[in-house]
Design brief:
This protein has 401 residues and is an alpha/beta fold. It is built from 18 helices and 11 strands. The protein has a 6-stranded parallel sheet with strand order 3-2-1-4-5-6, with helices on both faces. Helix 1 packs across helix 7 and helix 7 crosses helix 8.
Length: 401
């Protein structure tokens, strides 16, 4: 393990999260230099250790787990037992932040609820990530990404107009909750530095989902009308969508009227500029099907590469629709170092997706590969609590660790 160099160096985090939203939050903090102790159930660990196949090549580690658990030290601890709770409290006493995604109120029965810990450790920042937050009629419910996407509205906006509602192909509700949790923690750290006072961050996945409805949410608030599904079209800009080409499909993003003028002038479509139905973006939005029907045969005249070469020269937004094999081999993605290899304790090298935050002076660093279950139990208990080998062995025999 190399020493952390990121801006959060010196911060200690007690990580009681599992699956995706919470681990995403904790990994971001870990990448930025925080020392994260990930608490896992003895014998089974984080649920995502079993979310497989696929496994990482030549290991027993699921790709899902490996994706959001680097730079953490895994400690197995049964917080359902009194001795486990005592160990947890001793470790928390040395920590700045606790992150958890248990059901509302579940940790209180172990003496680890916010009010209980705040009374003992007033400087502790306590981040709770749940499906629906700590208050409100849905607070007791479990939260899962797909149901949040359904309840939060994005599924009603996603998919073809005459097709079924669709969820986004990656678990965005989980990911946004984790990232908003991270933002809340950083804000709470600033407050604690100024006042010495810790606090609870209450992150509800449904809240964060509503927050990122963005322009579509605002379209509803402005009109009182439910936005329709538009497939791959933009609700407020036309043409800004997927078009078929001679050999596939591509994205054309014409963001404003001057860009549409350049597009028409470059490809012998100036007659469209004289048609009031095409003259302004507002007119094109009102006549989106006409615009689509008019441009589709034009776009189908040439292959995707032909269009991208010419559109990029004109500084008109465009791009291919890449498969993941093309994403990870893209020269720009490669140049931005978005994939890295880490030496794993299995003896293998594992590939992970890098942290996208580029800091000029204190960049993320990659100290620890995603851990084996309980890999650091002995070293953490020895280092942090001063427990000797016999004591640790006794805890293991009792199933505490």
């Amino acid at each position: 393990m190399t020493d952390p160099t990121g801006p959060l160096k010196g911060l200690r985090i007690f990580d009681l999260t599992r699956v995706l939203a919470g681990p995403t939050c904790a990994q971001m903090l870990a990448d930025l230099g925080a020392d994260v102790i990930k608490i896992e159930r003895p014998g089974s660990g984080d649920d995502t250790r079993g979310f497989a196949p696929p496994f990482m090549a030549n290991t027993k580690e699921s790709a899902y787990f490996v994706g959001v658990n680097r730079n953490k030290r895994s400690v197995t601890l049964d917080i359902g037992q009194k001795e486990g709770q005592d160990i947890a409290l001793k470790l928390i006493a040395q920590c700045d932040i606790l992150v958890e995604n248990f059901k509302v109120g579940a940790l209180a029965k172990y003496g680890l609820g916010y009010e209980q810990l705040h009374a003992r450790f007033p400087r502790l920042i306590y981040c709770s990530i749940t499906g629906f937050g700590q208050t409100g009629p849905y607070a007791p419910r479990p939260g899962y990404d797909s149901l949040i996407q359904g309840m939060g509205g994005v599924m009603s906006l996603t998919g073809e107009p005459d097709g079924l509602p669709q969820k986004v192909g990656v678990p965005v509700a989980d990911l946004f909750a984790g990232l908003y949790g991270c933002i809340g923690i950083l804000a709470a750290l600033r407050h604690r530095d100024l006042t010495g006072q810790g606090q609870q961050i209450d992150i509800g996945m449904l809240d964060t989902h509503v927050a990122w409805l963005a322009n579509q949410g605002m379209n509803y608030l402005a009109t009182g009308e439910n936005p329709p599904r538009l497939g791959n079209q933009h609700p407020n800009i036309v043409p800004y969508q997927v078009f078929p080409t001679e050999d596939g499909h591509m994205v054309l993003s014409v963001g404003n009227d001057p860009t549409f003028k350049r597009f028409c002038e470059a490809f012998e479509l100036t007659h469209l500029l004289e048609d009031e139905r095409f003259a302004t973006n507002a007119a094109r939005v009102s006549n989106r099907q006409l615009v689509t029907d008019t441009l589709t045969p034009v776009m189908q005249q040439h292959p995707t590469s032909w269009w991208i070469e010419r559109l990029e020269a004109l500084k008109i937004g465009c791009g291919p629709i890449n498969k993941l094999s093309e994403v990870f081999s893209d020269p720009h993605v490669v140049a931005r170092d978005m994939v890295l290899e880490m030496a794993h304790s299995s003896g293998q090298t594992v590939k992970v997706i890098a942290n996208p935050v580029k800091l000029s002076e204190t960049p993320p660093n990659y100290r620890l590969a995603p851990p084996l279950l309980g890999e650091h139990t002995d070293s953490v208990l020895s280092e942090r609590l001063g427990l000797d080998a016999d004591t640790i062995s006794g805890l293991r025999e009792k199933g505490i660790i």
